[in-house]
Amino acid sequence: MTHDRRDTGLGDLALEAALRRVWAAAHGLWGLLATVDHKAIGRRYIATAFGFLILGGLLALAMRWQLSHPEARLLDPDRYNQVFTMHGSNMMFLFAVPVMEAMGVYFVPLMVGTRNIAFPRLNAFSYWVYLAGGLLLWGAFLLEMGPDVGWFAYVPLSGPQYSAGKRADIWAQMITFTEISALAVAVGLVVTVFKQRAPGMTLDRMPLFVWAMLVTAFVVILAMPAVVTASTALILDRLVGTHFFNPAEGGDVLLWQHLFWFFGHPEVYIIFIPAVGMVSTIIATFCRRPVFGYLAMVLALVGIGLLAFGLWVHHMFTTGLPRLGESFFTASSMAIAVPSGLQIFCWLATLWGARPRLAVPMLYVLAFLFTFVLGGMTGVMVASVPLDTQLHDSYFVVAHFHYVLIGGAVFPLLGAIHYWFPKLTGRMMGARPGRWECLLVFAGFNLTFFPMHILGLWGMPRRVYTYQPELPWAGLNLFASLSAVLLAAGFLLFFWNAWRSARHGAPAGENPWGAPTLEWATASPPPPWNFTRIPVVGSASPLWDSMGELTVAEGLRTDRRELLVTSVMDATPEARESSPQDSIWPLLAAIATSVMLVWSIFTPWAVVWGSIPIAVTLIGWFWPRGTPEDES
Amino acid sequence: MTGGWQSALAPGGSSADAILRLFWPTVALLGLIWLAVLLVLAAALLRRARPEAPRRAGAVVGAATAGTVLVVIGLTLASYLVTRPISAAADAPLIVQLRGLQWWWQATYPEEGEASGFVTANELHLPLGRPVRLELSAEDVIHSFWVPNLAGKQDMIPGRDNALTFTPTVPGVYRAQCAEFCGLQHARMALLVVVEPPEEFARWRAVQAAPATAEALAAEGRQVFERQPCGACHTVRGTGAAGRTGPDLTHLASRGTLAAGLLPMTRGALAAWIADPQTLKPGNNMPLVPLSADELQALTAWLASLR
Amino acid sequence: MRQRVVADLSGLPISGERHSSPSWWGTLAFMLIEGTGFALAIGIYLYLAALAPAWPPVMPPDLAAGTGVTLVLLASLLPNALLSRWTDAQDLRRVRLGLLVMLGFGLVPLLLRILEFGALNLRWDDGAHGSIIWFLLGLHTAHLLSDLVETAVLAALMFTRHADNPRRFGDVRDEVVYWYFVVATWLPIYGCIYWAPRL
Amino acid sequence: MRKPSRPRPAAGVSVRQAVPLGLVLLALCGCRREAREVRLDPPVAAALAGVAAMPNGIGGRPPEVYFVLGKPYRGNAYQLSEGKRLYAWFGCPECHRDGEGSGRGPSLLDGWWNHGPGIETIYLSIRDGRPGGMPPYRTRLTHEQLWQLAGYVQVLGAYSASAAAPGRSDQVQSRPAENRAPARFAPLEP
After folding, report:
1. What value does the mean pLDDT take over residues A24-38?
2. Would you say D124 and D51 are in contact if contact means Cβ atoms under 8 Å apart?
3. D106 in a domain, yes or no?
4. For testing the chain A interface, which of D170, D175, D178 should be mutated: the one with the most A CBs within 10 Å?
5. Between A and C, how many residue pairs show a Cβ–Cβ distance under 8 A?
6. pTM attached to this predicted model
7. What 8-state DSSP symbol labels residue C15?
8. What is the DSSP letter of C60?
């Protein structure tokens, strides 16, 4: 142990060569399947999630086509019900949550200045499980056995008596797949943020995006078990005849709704909080000053995370719960406007005192402010019990949550992709198409979804496959459908721009935007080891305060994958810890898990027999190989 | 712009009216806040930036947050104040039991004083100015009863009993549509609510409570009805047909629509519906019963006479 | 970017212990996830009990097997604490012994658990009550079982060339913490299944 | 195959894996079990009546169209669930309970078929009735419905559960659900 190799005194080239030897993934297919590099995993996560976004968008266009005129026959009711269920489930479980976590997987380790995410094999495993869940859902849909019970799958409609076949089981098990993957990522992110920050990055010097991902990870950890429990109970009801949701045998129909929304509402914040972190990041960079009120921003993030668990009942205002209790949930639901408002005020204060550069990411932030604030206002309306009894389950709500989710999360995400594209690919994303795409998406979105507020007030319920000509909805529906083409064109331009820029974009240097955070202190795209030497941080905006010189630490070994463990509060160095090598076992474990989960839709014995391969693959995963990473 | 006979913006009942009176001020207040945010944003982008004393910015942000708290408290109180009268019990209401089924509505008017009780489907009649208490239940899956012009929605949940109380204040015909996704034909589950003066309501109730009166021409159609499987699911009071799983057809032709709002109640529509229910409303529980042209002719003539 | 070396890390230990070890925090995070799951399951139990006109709808489960499991689990705390101490001392021989003992303490409750399912007097499809107590018991059994496998693998590992290594002792330490969790989560479940119906 | 060192494999991999996995799924589940055919063309529905019955009404051969349709009444989840609905709606439980039978009608779970276990025989029993109290249902159900009901009754009394069989009802439970092969738990005819 005394003759291990260190980086001390090595020149840059020699050091990089040494690091490449231990950190680079193997060549070939094997390397792709076995890699545990958070950037490789994060990239494929992001690409897969955007793939699902395209698929979900196509479903949305099919629905808009069907609804563009009364009594349309493009989709029959069975197909339409599958389509909107798939659209919702796909966008929530296969796009929004994974893509936000993927951004964390890619950027959090870079932003905190470490060499890989904590538990990188778990991270690889989470991607494979997620992919399997997505393939399960879409495979079923292509075989005309896609779930058709809505993305919240209320019992008894999704229960054993009213949902024949395996459609609802596929939905419920897809939930388990995606939640396992989300939970695995959350664990990795929490530990990365707690224990792997660069020396000197005290909690109050953490970038706001890292704070946002930390809060998100905790919300995931506390919320996701509820939906896994619920979907497991549903499968048990359907497969082995338990009675969780059967009122005739002491079960309860509303139990499902409580469990689902105890997860389902925080789910919205799991999507929204990372987006808030992206907005803060972009605003700071393009205003060239830190976001106003760092402490207030952090407290607002934590406050949103906490409040998220206190307002699930506002999805159930029309179920006949006691009125007094409902009024409490009105108060708690509206209260979320306070931390959200606080953040908006802080951003405005930041913009007020600066001269922001209106680059494309910043344009998306402006689109976000316009749209999200409007969605927040309608959110306050649906939090009010009497108003909600009219608005609930109508197109008003459809408009509201698209304003919040697309305006509040997808706009910042698109901005963030523009912003971080140089880091992801080494090239700038085209600015001129970027401005057009932003305009198209923004205008197309508002023109598509604003009329839905009015449709809802005019009595149009959601999830109807058609409507009759004697109802006054045809005009606005046609308008919304035509506008959806505009929105789709905007997205098309975005994808074309990304695809083209990845090949032909202008090369970006380390830090093209002049941003303050650590991910910009390394090459674009970063090498497998992220940082040749671990940065030492002295402020919240290290690259602004460093006068063009990065303070670093040395003394890590170069004969094994080694990174630095620091203390939770002050990020003082505590130990040098090894980071696991590439391994095929996470993929094998994911395959074993997938087989067990799919099999258990058909027979409960799958849990018994299917667990054996899982145990075997997990033992293979953890069994030491005698490498320097495994031994101390 | 008020959106007609299925719109929350054209109230014809006490609850919808109270909600709308909360709705517009809320929209105005929140709209103003939204505009204010956008104005500040625009000003921030357009002004020539001067370095601002952070303390002043802190005070402004603090004040805005405090303002948010006040707005939230105000709206919560307002919402609570509107909730109370809406959910209050009414004196001597008309009680109607409404049951949601895949994909139609069954209404039971219980016996009340002189008036005897009866069962009907897919159409409610309510007397003007008298509070009504709808007792809501579900046969199979969750449905939700929503007449936007009269009141906010209330779910019908298997294993639970819900009720909705309101007073119709404007006569007219209103349309309701199931508001909770309930399966294949969720889109085709509508109901008409006719609000009419009390005398007319009493007349309607008396007619509905009586058994069917079949006219001379139509006797043949009645035989078709009884010979074919129709009676296994449907009841026509006064005949042998006493099925209980489908809508009561005793006064079918008195209703405005057919098949839960799918078609207007005409003889042609009846014929089309009976001849091919699975094309008009795929997946519903009415089977295609093969009939000859003569049988169909006679049957629809008889059904159309069931007023 | 130019780099300026300001710190030398070579003096740090090459793997962290306890709260300076990522895997210790990972174990905590997983305990938080699973603890949330247990809390929700108990929440479902209480929710269904509050809704039912009479709870339990049938006679409560027989006490013997469940109490036996509880006593064994409580008794296991002592060897678990000893194992923890030996691990801190990195005393390989005693750690091996401790793991073997804990293997026994993992196995016995599992065997008793088989009797427990029989002593519930209910099947999983005997009403919502049967469903939720089978669910609770099944959830905890899954934890017992996975912990048993983990202990067995660790015990086997400690007899190989990979054994005498601070990292292995860290694994044993995480395992010790996790066993405390398995015991701690049992107590409220035991209360729910066996004592709540007797109140 | 792809160039191995390509850094962004995700989308490509997912598409490539989707195809074989989709085929496997197809083979595993079979679309037929999940299809939802809500409307038969009237001539097809009429042809379903053409069972070639033995003179005693026991045994026979289903019409050709039954095979052309892919025997949907035995293995299609939606058709079986329709049969289950009809079982409840058309009064079967009055004599047969949830399948256990009563003094008025035999058990359907005990594996003892008075007239043979074939689906065409069950169809004939329901359509034409049987001596001993089983009324004919031909005037109350269409042929398609008769087949749905016959398929359900057959699944109800099967000893090994089909993956297409319905799950439990939202009612008080009196026997294990159809997808758990209630016949296995039923006592044999005394």
Report:
1. 94
2. yes
3. yes
4. D170
5. 206
6. 0.94
7. S
8. P
